[in-house]
Design brief:
With about 170 residues, chain A is of the alpha+beta class. Chain A contains five helices and five strands, in the order ββαβββαααα. Chain A folds into two domains: about 80 residues, Beta-grasp domain (Ubiquitin-like (UB roll), Roll), CATH 3.10.20; about 70 residues, DNA polymerase, domain 1 (Orthogonal Bundle), CATH 1.10.150. Chain A starts with a strand and ends in a 9-residue tail after the last helix. By secondary structure, chain B is an alpha+beta fold. In chain B, the strands form eight sheets. Chain B has a seven-stranded mixed β-sheet with strand order 3-5-1-12-9-10-11, with helices on both faces. In chain B, α14 runs parallel beside α15, α15 crosses α16 and α17 crosses α18. The chains are: A alpha+beta (about 170), B alpha+beta (about 800).
């Protein structure tokens, strides 16, 4: 298939590359853009290792055509936070052993970031529900819940430190 | 070599994994994340037949495709290999015949994945189908069409062991039971599919990055198959997306990439699809256990007898070891005076089975602990009390010659009984709710190496130069379990320095001394002890230099908090950096070595097969599961599992907890929903969509209790933590289901259809008897057995 010039916005940067229109977003991220943090764990969109945020919504990049996402804001694990400026979710997965082998971890963190954005204080059942599209074979999920709770607590403390203006009814 | 020390500063404290930060920012590199300029992509052609002679292979059309750089078949690499010296029965590509659907026939390297896939489609293979064997009980009676000519009747290996006097034991028993239990086949389903990058280099050298638990066995096998000296090959283990045994022997992809790299003189990367992972397999075999056990009216086990048939698939792999573990660990968890064991490892035309977490012990432990529950009910005893009645008294030697040095099982049982509310709740829960108890154990490394040798099982080097950084060179393979972190903790503890000062270089055959690999839960015990010895040896050099400088004797000094100081109240002290400077003035850069070999007395008996089962030490686990059975649908919800695990000493409690919970999770998956489904020799569910590992929604709440029995030979008292808990989970759930509805589950996974059918039969029987004599149903109705399920 003939290659076309494709523009994507990934982790806040504009990226341009030539690729066939049938190239999957996952392959483009890993092979064209060198963002290997996003993983492939299955053949049939069942494991969640390849999850990325598209305009803030978790999507499986293994069943997404890269060319269809021009104009969208794509965030991969590399865009969540760098060493020295980690997102609280990343910190949680380090401090509470939410990552063992680490292969599923990018996908779990993507799902967690999206969850906490729409619901900053989820119950355990809501956490389980939100993470149920991601498979982990190491942890038995318990330390992942701890990691998410760590992030919730960290978020809460940060918001307490920087009080926002009271909401005004519109 | 134990170092019991009350004031530990790093060991025993939860520590985040040293590689966690790389993983959570997406910078950690797994094998498939690696690429080098000029790299080719490889793809493998797999057999569509379960058993067929290869008549011809035509590679010409594939070779002619633009972009194809090399095609290899069995002729390019005919040397057979296998993880066991007695089982060199597989070639990287089938030479004369294929033996399972998915067997490897040929491979292609091309400039892109698309071209490689097209080229695979252009390969033409003519097959002559042979009779295929898919049922182990039929296969083991085969008179002809054997899968391997050298294995008569398709029996890879059989063992017949008798310890003590089982016949007398059964005669002296007040209660006995006999039952067939069947456990389905399961796959590790590690999240990372296998990948290998083999780089051909100048001077006929090759560097191989591979997703392996056993870099040194891979090193050896590539050398044999590629006919290159080991010193021309370098194997590096990058980050591994977990293994659970699925990467603990050489997998065809690893050899295929090396053979293609050698042929094309280029870097070649191959990554399995998930479907190919299921064909490479090496998982837990479908196992038929015919078990008989007898106990006294006090619950004391008098004799155990088991006939075990394992459906091993088409190649030997770890097979004989699996079937030996099933026998060796059958009775060794308790004080069992007599054991008779007949184990058969049978070949079938299916993907080869191998080692999987809890290797060889899981399915027999399910049968054993289920039957112990049955007998407890027959004798009207509390199942927890029956476990207590059969405890070993360490130190001791079991009836089959296994040396037990530490034994935290009594405390494990106490802890789970207490935490689960066993005494208050058991037998008092309403119909449909129940709780069950079970125990398990596992080796902390095999006391005998796979390839007979007197070499230490692991060696660790430490280097400290002017910068006073401590660099540890260890061959141990971290596969996500945290062994790198454990070694950093141990070395920093012995040297009295902060963990950040210690850097670990691991699992690189060019830099690190031989370690046998990450299997049989050996790394904490063996590499941990080697690290202690190496660190003590380098500490000695530093302390000697400081003593000379202070004009005191070395034993008057201690290393703590990055300082070397006199143990008395003297103000004489020096920073670790300065102390290293003093020592280097004497020696130049400091180097030291430590190694570990299991003691002679831990290596077991002398009978045939005695080599498997002995370990320097054993872990123990006790668990209580609580379930709710929906008696209208047969659906079982596991509400909670409390697991107590005796790991000797938790060097990193956070990692131990992760291992124990992860083991219970995997046991839960096997108990409730995981199974490889076969239509003859064809695997019907080679995907994660249909091979259903538990998600966050199904998984129960799991509570981990760490028990520390402080093994006298373990590093700081530690034993294994990564496997031993898996086996108890399955029978704990089965026993809880029995407590809930009086139905005994004898086939794994526990199907809701079978459970519902048994509940309905039970109900019909109860109604019939109520109509018949107008009396309440007898207690015996709660003990309906489910023979012939599935």
């Amino acid at each position: 298939m003939k290659k076309e010039l494709i523009h994507l916005r990934v982790n806040g940067e504009d990226r341009e590359f030539a690729a066939a229109p049938n190239r999957l977003l996952l392959d483009v991220l890993r092979e064209e853009l060198g963002l290997t943090g996003t993983k492939r764990g299955c053949d049939d969109s069942s494991c969640g290792c390849c999850a990325v945020l598209v305009d803030g919504v978790p999507m499986l990049s293994c069943v997404a055509l890269a060319a269809s996402y021009e104009g969208c804001e794509i965030t991969t694990v590399e865009g969540l936070g760098a060493i020295g400026s980690l997102d609280p979710v990343q910190e949680g997965f380090v401090e509470c052993a939410g990552a063992q082998c680490g292969f599923c971890t990018p996908g779990f963190m993507i799902s967690t970031v999206a969850l906490l954005k729409r619901n900053p204080n989820p119950s355990l059942d809501e956490i389980r529900e939100a993470l149920s599209s991601n498979l982990c074979r190491c942890t038995g999920y318990m330390q992942i819940y701890e990691s998410v709770k760590y992030a919730i607590e960290k978020h809460r403390k940060e918001t307490e430190r920087t009080p926002v203006a009271p909401a005004v009814a519109r | 070599m134990s170092m019991a020390n009350p004031k530990l500063s790093t060991v025993g404290k939860p520590m985040a994994m040293t590689d966690a930060r790389m993983k959570i920012v997406g910078l950690g590199k797994y094998a498939d994340d690696l690429s080098v300029p000029g790299m080719l992509i490889g793809r493998i052609l797999h057999s569509p037949h379960p058993h067929a002679r290869i008549v011809s292979i035509d590679t010409s059309r594939a070779e002619a495709l633009p972009g194809v750089r090399g095609v290899v078949t069995g002729k390019d690499a005919p040397t057979p290999y296998g993880i066991l010296p007695i089982g060199h029965d597989e070639c990287v590509f089938a030479v004369d015949k294929v033996r399972y659907i998915g067997d490897n026939v040929a491979a292609v390297a091309a400039t892109s994945a698309e071209i490689a896939e097209q080229a695979v489609d252009l390969l033409r293979v003519e097959y002559e189908p042979l009779r295929a064997w898919s049922d182990p009980e039929e296969s083991m009676n085969a008179e002809s069409d054997w899968i391997h000519e050298s294995r008569a009747n398709n029996i890879e290996k059989e063992y017949h062991h008798v310890f003590g006097d089982p016949d007398t034991g059964f005669r002296e028993s007040d209660f006995a039971a006999e039952q067939r239990y069947v456990a389905g086949e399961v796959n590790h389903a590690a999240m990372e599919p296998h990948a290998t990058l083999a780089i051909w280099e100048a001077n006929d050298r090759m560097t191989v990055y591979s997703s392996t638990q056993v870099p040194y066995y891979l090193h050896r096998t590539i050398s044999e198959v590629c006919e290159m000296p080991m010193n021309q090959i370098r194997v590096i283990k990058p980050l591994i997306g977990s293994g659970f045994g699925g990467k603990s022997e050489v997998i065809p992809i690893e050899v295929a990439a090396a053979v293609l790299a050698k042929k094309t003189k280029k870097p070649v990367k191959i990554t399995y699809t998930r479907e190919e992972v299921f064909y490479a397999h090496r998982g837990r075999p479908r196992t038929i256990v015919d078990l008989k056990m007898g106990i006294t009216r006090d619950g004391k086990i008098k004799a155990v007898q088991a006939r075990v048939v394992q459906d091993g698939g088409a190649y030997c792999g770890f097979g004989p070891v699996t079937v030996l573990y099933s026998g060796a660990l059958l009775g060794a968890i308790y004080d069992v005076p007599a054991v008779r064991y007949d184990g058969y490892r049978v070949l079938t035309n299916k993907p080869a089975c191998g080692a999987m977490r809890g290797h060889g012990t899981v399915n027999v432990r399910f049968a054993f602990e289920s039957m112990l529950d049955t007998l407890a009910h027959q004798a009207s005893l509390d199942p927890a009390d029956v476990r207590r009645a059969n405890l070993l008294h360490a130190p001791c030697v079991t009836v089959n010659g296994l040396r037990v040095t530490s034994y935290g099982l009594p405390e494990c049982v106490e802890k789970v009984v207490e935490r689960s509310g066993w005494r208050e709740k058991r037998g008092k829960l309403p119909y449909g709710k129940g709780m069950g108890i079970a125990c398990s154990h596992y080796v902390s490394g095999a006391a005998n190496p796979i390839i007979r040798s007197s070499m230490p099982h692991t060696t660790v080097n430490i280097k400290i130069d002017r910068d006073a950084a401590v660099t540890v060179y260890s061959g141990a393979a971290d596969i996500g379990q945290g062994s790198d972190t454990m070694q950093v903790q141990v070395v920093s503890e012995v040297l009295g320095v902060r963990p950040g000062r210690v850097k670990l270089v691991s699992a690189d055959t060019e830099l690190t001394p031989v370690d046998l690999g990450s299997y049989s839960s050996r790394v904490t015990f063996m590499a941990g002890n080697a690290c202690i010895e190496a660190a003590k040896n380098v500490r000695e050099q530093i302390v000697a230099a400081v003593a000379e400088n202070f004009g005191c004797r070395p034993h008057e000094l201690e290393c703590v908090d990055e300082i070397i100081r006199k143990t008395d109240d003297s103000p004489m002290r020096v920073s670790f950096d300065d102390a290293v400077g003093m020592a280097i003035d004497f020696h130049g850069a400091l180097v030291a070595q430590g190694s570990y070999a299991p003691p002679e007395e831990a290596r077991g008996g002398k009978f045939k097969g005695a080599g498997v089962g002995p370990s320097p030490s054993y872990s123990y686990s006790a668990q209580v599961a609580e379930v709710t059975v929906d008696t209208e649908t047969g659906h079982v919800r596991v509400d909670k599992i409390v697991a107590a695990h005796d790991c000797g000493k938790a060097l990193n409690p956070m990692a131990v907890e992760g291992q124990v919970i992860g083991s219970v999770y995997m046991g839960f998956g096997q108990a409730m929903q995981e199974e490889m489904i076969w239509n003859g020799s064809r695997l019907m569910n080679p995907s994660l969509l249909e091979y259903r590992i538990p998600t966050a929604l199904e998984n129960p709440e799991i509570e981990c209790i760490i028990v520390e029995s402080e093994d006298p030979e373990g590093p700081f008292g530690a034993k294994e933590a990564g496997e031993g808990s898996l086996a108890a989970t399955i029978p704990a759930i089965a026993n809880a289901i029995y407590d809930a509805v009086g139905v005994r589950m004898i086939t794994v996974p526990f199907s809701r259809e079978a459970l519902l059918e048994a509940i309905r039969k039970q109900r019909a029987k109860k109604n019939a008897s109520a109509r018949g004599n107008g009396a309440a149903a007898s207690a015996g109705d709660r003990q309906a057995s489910m023979e012939g399920m599935r």
